[in-house]
Amino acid sequence: MNSDYRDKNSRKKQSLVSSFYFAFIGVITALKAERNLKIHFVMTVLVIFFGIIFELTKTEWLLISFAIAGMIALELMNTAIERVVDLVTTEQHPLAKQAKDIAAGAVLIYAVLTVIIGLSIFLPKIL
Ligand SMILES: Nc1ncnc2c1ncn2[C@@H]1O[C@H](COP(=O)(O)OP(=O)(O)OP(=O)(O)O)[C@@H](O)[C@H]1O
Q: How is the cofactor bound (predicted)?
């Protein structure tokens, strides 16, 4: 009974480690394949660099973190949706188009927010 519990517990721990590993592999896979994600990562490095130069406050760093992490996470979800759609059909289908366009729309909306956040933080400091 006790060893059953230990086995189950160690399997759970192992699967938690595997989950993190597979999630990390997912990020790397998408990064290699998706040009947009590469752009986001380059932008992230630039924003962090200028954030250090302009000595952002804690609140500004938090806002920037939300913008960056949200953008990358959403782009990853968009990529996942594109993959699933392509897996379901390679034929042209109106629902496939809708799924891809709606997912891209979600990215677009968040991108507008990140531009607003970026401008409202950096513009006053540049000017
Ligand atoms: N199976 C399909 N049926 C109908 N329309 C599709 C299908 N696949 C893609 N499309 C349309 O073609 C456009 C381009 O599709 P694609 O798979 O190249 O994705 P994308 O939007 O260019 O994404 P990314 O540039 O991030 O890879 C989509 O936005 C969608 O409108």
A: Mn(2+), Zn(2+), Cd(2+) and Co(2+) support activity to lesser extents.
